[in-house]
Amino acid sequence: MEFNLKEAIEVLERTPQTLEHFLSGLSDGWLYCNEGEGTWNAIEVVDHLIEGEKNNWIPRLEFILQNGSNQPFPEFDRFSHLKNQSQRTIDQSLQEFKTIRMENISKMNTLIEPADFELEGYHPAFGTVKIRELLSTWVVHDLTHISQIVRIMAERYRSDVGPWREYLGILKKRDLNNK
Fold first, then answer.
1. To the nearest whole number, what is the mean pLDDT of the chain?
2. Domain encompassing residue 86
């Protein structure tokens, strides 16, 4: 599959709306449930996405454009959102995510063009990476966390579904991973 910026933006633009439609107005039971000790709840996932918007995707894109692969870009602390737990409501967090995401998409569109997709940067853990890989990862990162939120919420009713668990693939995946 060849990277297509227009198609990538289709997903990036929709993620804030998807999360808003899915999470806004839900009770705390849904928003704060998790999959067990050391796992995130839906609010923590949204806070993580906000941190990524502020400190990962566009800053790394700008770093690659300015420095190439001459030096590694700064590491991104994937858990920083857990250190500074906010007191925002889910609706406030979703609005912040939406605002920053739209600004970042706009900024990305001014920073790059297709000729830049193969420009390289240096990731501190992975080594040489390309802009198209960074942007593709941004899209798949969104999809990963949307899937994670759905899985977290399904887990809440794991014991309540009784024998139907056998037919609920979202619950069976965890069973397979724990074997």
1. 91
2. 5-177
